Amino acid sequence: MTKKPLEKHEEIEHLITKTYRARIYSRFVKALKEYQLLKPNDHVCVCISGGKDSMLLAKLFQILNKHSDFPFKVTYLVMNPGYNEANLKLIQKNLNILQIPAVIKETNIFEIANAQDKSPCFLCAKMRRGALYNIAKSLGCNKIALGHHYDDVIETTLMNLLNSGSFQTMLPKLHSTNYQGMELIRPMYFIREKDIISWKKKCELEFLQCACKFVESSQKENSEINSQRLATKKLIHDLISYNKQVEKNIFKSASNVNLDMILGYKKGLEKISFLDHYDDEIKN
Q1: Overall pTM > 0.70
Q2: From the CA atom positions of the chain, what is the Rg in Å?
Q3: CATH architecture of 8-219
Q4: Contact 51, 95 (CB under 8 A)
Q5: Domain ranges in the chain?
Q6: Residue 5 and residue 48: Cα distance in Å, rounded?
Q7: Which residues have CB under 8 Å from 263's CB, separation 6+?
Q8: CB 37 within 8 A of CB 172
Q9: Which of 114, 132, 220, 222 is deepest in the core (most CB within 10 A)?
Q10: Could you tell me if 77 and 46 are in contact, meaning their C-beta atoms sit under 8 angstroms apart?
């Protein structure tokens, strides 16, 4: 008896659960468990920007939802900040190929942000995050899931150190300060970007890179933004020749802080200096 060929979305699911099980699916599940990102009866809003990371995240949740040992709900959301027609069609095409039943909500965020005199990136990011929380809450969700991965984490850690003079990382989950009862989670925390790219190529899919209208108007000839993040990505790559474990060590450093050997740290609004308890060591 001839076996029925798999449909495209079934092939993609098979790749995730078989070929990329160790590199992608298992690491997704590991982050969920290790950081307690998902609990019974949660209603997760998976936020889809149209890029490779968020599209993979949506597929991972779709697979997990079929096999989870406890109940939870998932809503797939495309918050349209003002994509041009070609980009929106590409998102809809990929949603159809992946068989992801996403809700598309229209906003005018690009229009508002791009009306600013200076670079609108900060305002755009802030407005998009707020819109995601607002829409997700209106849909009955208590969590929003974003597609940040391992490389985003180490790049953010190093960028804060080099550019802000502070040691801060990208946490796997955060309580919202403005939307009560809402939480942000990052289930792709352990997944490497190179494996996401490999999966994308294996699936023969093309996703959005950056659909920002500011980028379209200022760098039409270049699909990548010459940004601090790209410079940091290159710096990390260069540092590997110094130490092959540098990526792992940057990631590990955020959970291996020795408070006895730093000048100071913050706890909320409070600033703690090593001098506050320096003389206590002699008394004890």
Answers
A1: yes
A2: 21
A3: 3-Layer(aba) Sandwich (3.40)
A4: no
A5: 8-219
A6: 29
A7: 273, 274
A8: yes
A9: 132
A10: yes
